[in-house]
Amino acid sequence: MKINVSILSSTIKPQDIVKELDNTNADAIHIDIMDGKFVENKTWTIGEITKITKYSSFPLDVHLMVNNPSKYIEDYAMLNTNNITFHYEATKNEEELKKWIDLLKENNCKVGISIKPETPVEKIYKFLPYVHLVLVMTVEPGEGGQKLIDDCILKIQKLKQYIDENNL
Hints:
- 31% of the residues lie in helices and 20% in strands.
- The chain has 168 residues and is an alpha/beta fold.
- It has a 6-stranded parallel sheet.
- The chain starts with a strand and ends with a helix.
């Protein structure tokens, strides 16, 4: 099991948080990147994340909640990044989605795909052989502190069953 720590919001400076995290047994720092278009909120810039990584030896687990993931992939891949997750819903074009997968692999990143609570899990089945992780959102992306959407637990169970039955 891996433990990734999110530093989305805090009253403590991000560089102070990551300095403290270096004293733990966490595996990575989870960073939510929001562009203000795919979701309403905006978060970190590449400059801010680059600065934060100077204070920590942890690899990054980057979650792109953005309209055009390809704009971000190479910049974040150049940092100490283990994996980058993009949203299935960021495009209606499956060819574009496959290009994102290939671009991530070309940049030596593990590939993650995420789905929003209303997206049927079956929509990503065909991509599962090409990704390393799936992030099933149990709240609407883009804002912290929301209540869990209970129906998403069934979606996770269904996904796990499909993965096991298909030896993925």
